[in-house]
Amino acid sequence: MTTRVAAFVGVAGLALLCGAVVEASSRREDGTWLDAASREAAARSAALFASLSGHLRASGGDRRFAERLPADDGVVSEVLADIAFVQHQGREERPQLVQFEVREVKPVAPGLAEVRAREFWVTRSTRDGASSRSDVVPVRYAVRRDGRGWRVADWDIDVEDGSASRARR
After folding, report:
1. How far is residue 11's CA from residue 14's CA, in Å, rounded to a whole number?
2. What pLDDT, on the 0 to 100 scale, is given for residue 112?
3. What pLDDT band is residue 4 in, cutting at 50, 70 and 90?
4. Is the model's pTM score more than 0.90?
5. Between the N and C ends of the chain, which has fewer C-beta atoms within 10 Å?
6. What angle do CA 62, 114, 135 make, to 5 degrees?
7. Integer Cα distance of 9 and 4 in angstroms
């Protein structure tokens, strides 16, 4: 009798596990895990990354700003390498994020979302004289949720957007 009960409990447990897997799979496919509050938090994290990376660039690579970036180590290293390249070229850039316009936040996988945005920048540069330029940059961020909140896992120019522009002043 004990083996029948154990077999019944095992079969019932397996059925419950299969049901949970099917439900989780359907939630992942329809994106219901990414509710409105999560979408807003993911977008805020991307906007904070953009703003702080501008401060990091303007500071010439001050590590205090790098430590505050809500981003994976590889992303922070990429920004620091770009700053070093600009400095090596004898330039100094002081970008200022004027506006961060969220265009879309969509689920990619559980705990991973894509944030598409437009960033409006004014950058002052020095190299053989001062210049200023305004840029509208369409950006696509991959953000992931972990124990510390949402973090930028990757980012790139959104070539599908087509709204990039540059105006020199």
Report:
1. 5
2. 96
3. low
4. no
5. N
6. 55
7. 9
